[in-house]
Design a protein that fits this description.
Layout (H helix, E strand, L loop, with lengths): L10 E3 L12 H10 L3 H15 L7 H7 L4 E4 L11 H7 L4 E6 L2 E6 L2 E4 L8 E6 L2
Parallel strand pairs: 1-5
Antiparallel strand pairs: 2-6, 3-4, 3-6, 4-5
Length: about 130
């Protein structure tokens, strides 16, 4: 059982979009932040990969799993009736390193205990995660 984190927020605002726009680009944003890459370069790479792998969009869950399959995947199994691990609790379990976390209808980057994103999704459940570094 994971004890609920009640200390400081794990969220840290980070927007790698070159114009600082707030868009629905969580896949590009998370990957750019996790790999310390240019936002536009990541978007080009994702568009190329989706074509090569036969997907219609790089936002598809199956594409994300395929794209990240070369990294160690962390599956957080939870017994029936027990709440899933939330982002703020995940950070307590994995304090160091870089992770991409798959949430419900969202994906984000966590680096050394900080959720890097344009909005605070630390209350959301983590379905799976990939250790990047």
């Amino acid at each position: 059982m994971v004890k609920r984190c009640t200390s400081m927020s794990v969220f840290e605002y980070s927007n790698p979009h070159p114009k600082g726009l707030l868009t629905t680009d969580c896949v590009v944003r998370a990957i750019a932040l996790a790999f310390d890459k240019d936002y536009l370069e990541v978007r080009r790479e994702l568009n190329q990969s989706k074509k090569e792998l036969g997907f219609g969009s790089y936002k598809e869950t199956k594409f994300i799993y395929k794209y990240l399959e070369r990294f160690d995947r962390i599956v957080l199994k939870v017994p029936k009736g027990v709440p899933r691990v939330k982002v703020d609790d995940f950070v307590e379990l994995f304090k160091e390193g870089t992770y991409i976390v798959k949430l419900s209808k969202h994906i984000a980057c966590i680096k050394d205990g900080k959720l890097l994103d344009t909005w605070d999704s630390s209350y959301r459940s983590v379905y799976t995660a990939w250790k990047i570094k």
